[in-house]
Amino acid sequence: MAGTETAALPRHIAIIMDGNGRWAKRRLLPRQAGHRAGLTAARHVIEGCARLHIGALTLFAFSSENWQRPQREVGNLMDLLMHALEDEVRELHANNIRIRFVGTLEAFSPDLQQGMRRAEELTVMNTGLALNIAASYGGRWDIVCAAHKLAAAAVSGHIRPDQIDEARLSRALVLPELPDPDLFIRTGGEQRLSNFLLWNLAYTELYFTDRLWPDFDEPALQTALNWYAARQRRFGRTPEQMKEEAGA
Ligand code: FPP
What pairs with residue 5 in β-bridges? Predict the structure, then answer.
């Protein structure tokens, strides 16, 4: 990935890894084969982000709505997650990657929950890429949990209701210490957020590609990064204001 060092790199990337099922169907393979190929793609993208010194990567591995999939597919996805925890964590740790799981983790089996906790504990001191795996996660759930925390703080007298502002609500979400994603990527051709990080994506650059997730390799990541580097991020200001600020 030469040549990106000088371009503007996102500090935090969020990805919806869509298209595993279609990738498998096109090859007349079971959906599970698509998810396995998706895990390989995830590994390559994680390695790519770590190599580029991107601060944080948040992957949508399983949404709160994914529980509604056929029981067999949910079971297969859980097995894949378990294997990923057993096989990948050591390598991620060796690469100084810090792993965190966010979502209603109590919905997972005790074994899986324990595997997630172990992965977090093993990597907690790592200072490289912050890798967040959103599992049984929903953006609205995240905001509602934050509202509960702030309401409880107000009821117990720790804060006044009028002290609830954007900064406080941001700090009550599941990724409080990370900058909001600069770049959001969704593979698989759909152009929607699907209840992912709704609060955090307010000013994020949104990149959609038809490429199916198992085909999203390092050159594809590079294409997304080049697209991002060419974006002008104005955060509500005019192009003229941006020019003035750049010259100041
Ligand atoms: C969406 O494809 C993908 C998922 C619901 C699961 C994503 C899981 C992985 C990539 C593997 C696990 C990854 C980690 C990081 C542990 P889809 O099934 O909706 O595809 P389709 O839209 O073509 O049917």
Answer: none
pLDDT of residue 248: 59
Is 87 considered catalytic here?
Answer: no
CA atoms within 13 A on the CB side of 83: 10
Give dist(CA 151, CA 164) in Å, integer.
9
Active site residue 18: yes
Domains and CATH numbers, the chain: 9-138+180-230 (3.40.1180.10)
Q: Provide mean pLDDT across the span 162-176.
A: 97
pLDDT confidence tier of residue 206, bands split at 50, 70 and 90: very high
Q: Provide the whole-model pTM.
A: 0.92
How many H-runs (helices) and E-runs (strands) does the chain carry?
8, 6
- Residue nearest ligand 1's atom 7 by CA: 61
